[in-house]
Specification:
264 residues; alpha/beta; Rossmann fold; Helicase, Ruva Protein, domain 3; seven-stranded mixed beta sheet; two-stranded antiparallel ribbon; 11 helices
Length: 264
């Protein structure tokens, strides 16, 4: 059955508070799966299976799929749809509350809601640092922030994602591929762990980056004053322009500043 037919059969009413826009176009489902280099020994974590359109394609790879769904009304649909798959485990729980410590080198695949995209990224990076890779569909605006190198889209998310991973945009997905149609298009991004400095504690670095961007229209010198009393000295020692804004600093420069603060 098509996604719309499954939803109708189980009288599912989509909920705005969960950011529910379900991928229904199998052309894009197949494209996403084609990017996976999966064997039956792999473990896939799917965040928010929804009506299970992408889930079905993932299960057919023979990899084991752990799916986490926050909407309890979808449980009967998902259990019925995949009752014949032995490589499927469904947990009805908010993914942000899931304990991921038992997973070793999982592959993440998901169509994630815009309103919780950043917390999901941070959870993946900090709780499963050895994940194999993640292929995530996000709204286009969010994808532009993930891949930005500088400018208005450059943010703590940009710095942290690229500090932790190699990031690439795989495909664009039009809003017409979803039920219901969202207001903007989406993109599929791939994140492959490649931490830029293994001596740095990721959680502490993330907190540092958020503080550096706390007043993004101000200079890095003014933002660093919230962190250290030696802001000007640190920037001068590193030959960094005192008037530059955070959005114009490279990831490598942020790493240098962070390590310099720690050395004083």
């Amino acid at each position: 059955m098509k996604t719309s037919e499954w939803l109708k059969k189980y009288s599912i009413v989509l909920k705005k508070r969960f950011g529910q826009n379900f991928l229904s176009d199998e052309v894009f489902v197949n494209k996403i799966v084609s990017f996976l280099n999966i064997s039956e020994n792999d473990v896939i974590i799917e965040i928010g299976p929804g009506a299970g359109t992408l889930t079905e394609a993932l299960l057919k790879t023979k990899a084991f799929v752990y799916a986490y769904e926050i909407d309890r009304t979808l449980e009967p649909l998902l259990k019925k749809r995949f009752e014949n798959f032995k490589n499927f485990n469904l947990t009805i729980e908010d993914f942000l509350n899931v304990d991921l410590k038992s997973f070793k080198k999982p592959v993440y695949v998901a169509n994630i809601p815009y309103n919780i995209s950043s917390p999901i990224f941070e959870k993946i990076f900090t709780e499963t640092p050895d994940f194999k890779y993640a292929i995530l569909m996000v709204q286009k605006e969010f994808g532009e922030r993930v891949t930005a190198k500088s400018g208005k889209n450059y943010s703590p998310l940009s710095v942290f994602s690229q500090f932790y991973c190699d990031v690439e945009t795989l495909i664009n997905v039009p809003k017409s591929a979803f039920i219901p149609n969202p207001k903007i298009d989406s993109v599929v991004v791939k994140l492959t762990p490649n931490i830029k400095d293994k001596e740095i504690n990721p959680k502490l670095f993330l907190d540092f980056i958020h503080k550096c961007f706390s007043q993004r229209r101000k200079t890095i010198r003014n933002n660093l004053k919230l962190i250290t009393d030696n802001a000007e000295t640190i920037l001068k020692d590193l030959n960094i322009d005192l008037t530059v804004r955070p959005e114009n600093l490279s990831i490598e420069t942020f790493i240098d500043i962070y390590k310099k603060i720690g050395s004083i």
